[in-house]
Specification:
With about 500 residues, the protein is α+β, with helices and mostly antiparallel strands. It folds into 5 domains: about 5-40; about 60-100, no CATH class; about 120-290, Ribonuclease H-like superfamily/Ribonuclease H (Nucleotidyltransferase, domain 5, 2-Layer Sandwich), CATH 3.30.420.10; about 305-365, no CATH class; about 375-500, no CATH class. It has helices spanning about 5-15, 20-30, 35-40, 60-70, 75-85, 90-100, 165-180, 205-215, 230-245, 255-265, 265-270, 280-290, 370-395, 395-405, 410-425, 425-440, 445-460, 470-475; strands spanning about 120-135, 135-150, 155-160, 185, 195-200, 200-205, 220, 270-275, 275-280, 305-310, 315-320, 320-325, 335-340, 340-345, 350-355, 365. The strands form 5 sheets. A 5-stranded mixed β-sheet has the order 3-2-1-4-7, sandwiched between helices. The N and C termini lie far apart (about 115 Å).
């Protein structure tokens, strides 16, 4: 606390002239007693040592000190419980305050500033920047960040998850943006980089090793509990949060990445280089770039690959969405090859479908040709089943259908109507009516219906009733039985007179 000269003069006068105590001076002037002590000390007077007041915690201090010496990380809550068990009557607030004063302080560790050579090293990490809602999907917005350790050049790219494929895409995009890559890439213990670690024994992710072999760099994890070794990328992520992402507006992920690239080439590159304050990051990168490793002729393949099983419907499920396939491919094991723009579906080496990628959830992405082809196939199949059923009911049906088509009638409509007549009147009546229509040279469904109605009226039978049956039952053919065997139950009366159908 800073005081003016007038207050300082009052403190000296009250002490030397009035002989007031430090506490009285502080109370009267409305300041802390430490301020009074400081003024008196500057005047050449030794600091007044105050005798501490006795406290109810004093009898327990030896126990507390010994316990903290043996268990320095023991919580104050647990220590308070142990003191209560030994008779401590006080409250927890005062106890915790005193524990904070008594707890042994760990000596802060000093670190050496890490120095790297141009083109030697880059550091890599993910940064989480909230979530993005796409339709009904809520996807994490992840920033892939790579920083050259010497020039501090930043590469920034946003993705909708931190899966291995996007981890690889971030590497390839950074290398292409820099037109080269450093000799060593330093990672935290990311699952995308390190699968297992036992002391100094490290098992890298096999796909990361494939990437490093393709581009000829050395993957290197930071030491355990040595986060300072990747401090450059951590500071870069904080810098991105405060200088780039905060208050930024964007509509699509592509728009955000375009803005990120402009920021990396502009604002971020214009800042002073920490290794040489006389240079900007852009100038330092231009000096560092010749020392980077050259890129291979072909970039690493970062497409997602997975096997999928098509069900009974002509769709496959990939990344929370359904993509259409030709109906001939149902109930087969297929493969998906996907990048950020396109989803390609393969049957072996044959490409059977290609769709724009969707990042929503539960969406149905389809091609019209797949849907139309299935509809036509179902229609043709239904037509063929109807023709086959009619042919089994009457041997004259093929001739009637042929003549009906020749006279310009629609086959689909004719088959549908004749099947309805078959359901209403039975196969015997339909066979007779079709035969009669052909003799009259009237191969039309309407003519067949008229003949059926006339025959029904001649027999004095009631109008037919339609019975809705499932398709699997409707197409069954039932063998007819000769009812003459049952005529004896009615005596000698002929079956025809009783209006019994022999079907």
């Amino acid at each position: 606390m800073t005081i003016n000269k007038e207050t300082e003069a009052k403190i000296l006068r009250y002490h030397f002239v009035e002989q007031w105590r430090v506490g009285t001076i502080a109370t009267q002037l409305g300041i802390h007693h430490s301020v009074v002590d400081r003024v008196l000390s500057q005047a050449g007077l030794p600091k007044v040592e105050r005798s501490p007041r006795p406290s109810i915690i004093d009898p327990y201090l030896p126990f507390i000190v010994d316990t903290l010496r043996e268990f320095p990380t023991l919580t104050a809550v647990r220590l308070y419980e142990m003191a209560q068990q030994r008779g401590y009557p006080g409250g927890s607030s005062q106890f915790r305050q005193r524990i904070s004063q008594l707890r042994p302080r760990q000596q802060p560790e000093a670190y050496l500033r890490l120095k790297t050579l141009p083109g030697e090293q880059a550091q890599v990490d993910w940064g989480h920047f909230g979530y993005v809602e796409i339709g009904t999907a809520k996807r994490p917005l992840m920033a892939f960040v790579m920083v050259l350790s010497w020039s501090r050049q930043i590469f920034l790219q946003f993705y909708l998850n931190a899966q291995m494929e996007n981890f690889l895409r971030g590497h390839v995009a950074a290398f292409e943006a820099w037109k080269g890559l450093p000799k060593v890439l330093l990672y935290d213990n990311l699952k995308s980089a390190v699968l297992e670690r036992q002391g100094d024994a490290i098992r890298f992710h096999p796909t990361l090793l494939e990437l490093s072999a393709h581009y000829r760099f050395e993957p290197r994890p930071v030491a355990v509990a040595r986060g300072n070794e990747k401090g450059r990328v951590e500071r870069a992520i904080r810098y991105i949060r405060d200088n780039f992402f905060a208050g930024r507006h964007w509509q699509t992920l592509d728009e955000l990445n375009t803005q990120a690239d402009e920021w990396c080439q502009g604002v971020s590159a214009n800042r002073p280089c920490p290794e040489n304050k006389e240079l900007s990051v852009r100038d330092a990168f231009l000096q560092e770039q010749p020392g980077l490793l050259e890129l291979p002729d072909n970039p690493f393949d970062t497409r997602e690959r997975m096997e999928v099983r098509a069900g009974k419907t002509p769709y496959i499920r990939f990344d929370l969405n359904d993509y259409s396939i030709p109906h001939q491919q149902v109930q087969k094991t297929l493969s998906v090859h996907a990048d950020l723009e396109t989803v390609r579906i393969m049957n072996g080496i044959e490409g059977i479908a290609e769709h724009p990628r969707c990042f929503g959830k539960g969406e149905q992405v389809e091609q019209e040709i797949h849907v139309n082809a299935l509809w036509l196939a179902k229609t043709h199949a239904k037509l063929h089943r109807g023709q086959d059923r009619l042919s089994q009911a009457s041997e004259h049906i093929p001739d009637l259908l042929q003549q009906s088509i020749e006279r310009g009638h629609i086959l689909k409509t004719t088959v549908r109507l004749l099947n309805e007549y078959l359901d209403y009147y039975g196969r015997n009546e339909l066979n007779a009516a079709v035969e009669e229509a052909l003799k009259q040279q009237s191969p039309y469904p309407q003519a067949v219906q008229q003949i059926l109605e006339r025959r029904r009226e001649e027999k004095h039978c009631p109008p037919p009733l339609a019975v809705a049956l499932p398709d699997k039952v409707k197409h069954l053919q039932v063998k007819t039985i000769n009812m003459a065997d049952y005529d004896q139950l009615y005596g000698d009366e002929p079956t025809e007179k009783r209006g019994v159908d022999h079907e």
